[in-house]
């Protein structure tokens, strides 16, 4: 069974989403020069090589042994789909806005967790997640010109990421964290290797090669931390805190892509951050209110 240590799970989640925001910034930098297929293939290849160099000498090929292969494959394709669709979406949307659309996923996780995982959110947690979703709407502003066909790409990524998060929790401790991430990386490499020859145009410049290696390294660390976070607490608890990635993405967008969030975006980011704090305080209050047996 998964341990119940929500504070540790939240801390790991916050570090992971910071890494994911930096990862997305690197991917956005690469997409004007290389196909999203090539970028995501490079990410998964580096991740798999790094994990393989670390794990195979110690554990051998048994690292691929898992108790739920079907769930592991679904998890891997959920992660692959989320990455591929999101990277494609950043071609048409600023990083902060694309990230905001992706964060329909935490709301969907909360919606599905009670039915799939048998976990129920308190009223306070529901309000916090809804507040976070409203913050996303403030940033995106459906009437503000962002409802374009390109918007369908991060929306599809949100659905895929919801699948990934739910299955990660379903797997729990049935398989080792490193096994889960090794399988996800291997599935991504094999799947994308079939397509890469049709999209590879030329040898990347040294700077681009370095960026590809860096994004793979960051992805490895981020997903290991997030997988570990789900072992300590429910995705319902973590959902509002993952909204912090929008804040980080907005900051990186301003620093590296000269896209300054406007007043509405800043208000939305503040609402999202407060929703995360509200979820945590609601959880603490609910635990204190439980009768001592």
Please give a structural write-up.
The chain has helices spanning 6-30, 36-59, 69-89, 95-102, 105-116, 123-140, 152-171, 177-199, 206-232, 235-242, 244-257, 263-289. It is mainly α. It has one domain. Helix 1 runs antiparallel to helix 9 (206-232), helix 4 (95-102) packs antiparallel against helix 11 (244-257) and helix 5 runs parallel beside helix 7.
Quick summary:
By secondary structure, the chain is an all-alpha fold.
Set down the secondary structure blueprint.
Elements: H1 6-30, H2 36-59, H3 69-89, H4 95-102, H5 105-116, H6 123-140, H7 152-171, H8 177-199, H9 206-232, H10 235-242, H11 244-257, H12 263-289
Helix pairs in contact: 1-9, 1-10, 1-11, 2-3, 2-8, 2-9, 3-7, 3-8, 4-7, 4-11, 5-7, 5-10, 6-10, 6-12, 10-12
| Helix-residue proportion | over 70%
Number of helices: 12
Our Rg estimate from Cα atoms comes to: 19 Å
Tell me what portion of residues adopts beta-strand conformation. under 5%
| Major sheet characteristics | none
Low-confidence stretches: none
The class by helix and strand makeup works out as: mainly alpha
Q: What is the H/E string?
A: HHHHHHHHHHHH
Kindly state the mean pLDDT as a whole number? 83
- Overall structural domain count: 1
- Count every beta strand, where a strand is a DSSP E run of 2 or more residues: 0
Beginning-to-end CA distance, first to last residue: 21 Å
Give the overall shape, derived from the CA principal axes: globular
